[in-house]
TrEMBL record:
Pfam families: HIT. SUPFAM superfamilies: HIT-like. CDD domains: PKCI_related (cd01276). A motif (Histidine triad motif) lies at residues 108-112. This is Histidine triad nucleotide-binding protein. Residues 14-124 form the HIT domain. InterPro entries: Histidine_triad_CS (IPR019808), Histidine_triad_HIT (IPR001310), HIT-like (IPR011146), HIT-like_sf (IPR036265).
Amino acid sequence: MSVTGLPPYDDANIFARILRGEIPCKKVAEDAHALAFHDIHPQAPVHVLVIPKGRWVSAADFHAGAEAEAIAGFWRMVTAVAKEQGLEASGYRILSNMGQDGGQEVPHFHVHLFGGRRLGRMVPPAPAG
Ligand code: AMP
């Protein structure tokens, strides 16, 4: 099934399973609102994923439906993890893919936090053809 980035939420997705403790992760931080862990296939020296604890498929439904406190808590964790990873002075990139064109693979809203090197172009050129 392709990932649309829109509900319904699939409770069998890999991040839901990590949240339920069924699959291990390399945890970086956790609080009432969010969990941060290292990406299993890092694309930069620092590549951390931050996920909210609620059942949200993508940026769209998270920001439309979550409580303001949960949204604030989530984004505070993103920037706190960036600081804790030592990225504030050198800089970093936060990115969230939504749906097919965004390249979203896991249908649980998440933000990628990249850093530790110059990250280059924000969006690669479209493939030829
Ligand atoms: P996206 O393409 O934005 O949905 O990103 C999904 C990310 O999840 C990819 O960067 C994967 O490497 C990462 N990922 C998939 N499974 C795991 C896992 N079990 N633990 C950590 N990261 C994972």
